[in-house]
């Protein structure tokens, strides 16, 4: 599962890393985020008319056929193993894949039934990265278009396994263009990209329990308070 993420990277570095166009001025809206939670907006990259384009989307996929947006609260993650089977994800997997921009994510260690210790997972290089995501657009009764996304998960790598049996799919940079190419329809090849990121390129560290509340979004959320 993946229920909290961070994107603290400077927006100029984000532009440099992903090389997108930004016709809607989304980049100007980006500020460092230390505790992004479901139902909040977060930056993504899609391909639109052969160009990478930056989009702000709501976390929690709302399929185009949904009767109301509440379904999004149940669609924050999508299992890589069943993307072809689930009606909520099947069409987006074929036609609407996105990069969800991040530089870290949180998971909670539970040494006993009463204790939850938050950990932040990052690349050892501390570089930003992209989760494999799916997106869709939904029209509300007033005709307003809402863009939303889900983050794909896979089985845990060796670093994550003691904490949780699943983890979000962090794409290798070389695979990002293939993932978001809307003309690429080979779902078996796409599924092969959805693997656990190598443990030796990641690390985790303990952070403050203030991240337990999505109301808290400050640099204190990512400050280390111990070691794993």
Describe the structure.
This protein is mainly beta and 228 residues long. It has one domain: SOS response associated peptidase-like (hypothetical protein yedk fold), CATH 3.90.1680.10. It is 12% helix and 38% strand. The chain is built from four helices and 13 strands. It has helices spanning 11-18, 87-95, 176-180, 187-192; strands at 5-7, 33-36, 41-48, 51-59, 77-79, 97-102, 104-112, 115-123, 129-139, 145-155, 166-168, 202-207, 224-227. The strands form two sheets. The chain has a six-stranded antiparallel beta sheet with strand order 2-1-7-8-12-13, with no helix packed on it. A five-stranded mixed beta barrel has the order 3-4-10-9-6. Strand 3 and strand 4 form a beta hairpin.
Can you tag this structure with a few keywords?
hypothetical protein yedk fold; globular; mainly beta; 12% helix; 6-stranded antiparallel β-sheet
């Amino acid at each position: 599962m993946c229920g909290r993420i961070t994107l603290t990277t400077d927006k100029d570095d984000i532009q440099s890393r992903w090389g997108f166009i930004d016709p809607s001025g989304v980049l100007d809206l980006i500020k460092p985020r230390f505790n992004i939670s479901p139902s909040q907006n977060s930056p993504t990259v899609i391909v639109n008319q052969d160009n990478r384009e930056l989009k702000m989307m709501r976390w929690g996929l709302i399929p185009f056929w949904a009767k109301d947006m509440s379904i999004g609260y149940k669609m924050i993650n999508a299992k890589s193993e069943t993307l072809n089977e689930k009606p909520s994800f099947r069409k987006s997997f074929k036609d609407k894949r996105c990069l969800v921009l991040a530089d870290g994510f949180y998971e909670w260690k539970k040494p006993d039934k009463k204790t939850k210790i938050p950990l932040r997972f990052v690349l050892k290089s501390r570089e930003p990265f992209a989760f494999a995501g799916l997106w869709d657009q939904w029209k509300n009764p007033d005709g307003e278009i809402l863009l939303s996304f889900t983050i794909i998960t896979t089985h845990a790598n060796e670093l994550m396994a003691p904490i949780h049996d699943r983890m979000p799919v962090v794409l290798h940079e070389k695979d990002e263009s293939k993932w978001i190419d809307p003309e690429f329809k080979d779902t078996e090849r796409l599924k092969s990209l959805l693997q656990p990121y190598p443990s030796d390129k990641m690390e985790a560290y303990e952070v403050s329990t203030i991240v337990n509340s999505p109301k808290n979004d400050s640099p204190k959320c990512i400050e280390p308070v111990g070691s794993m």
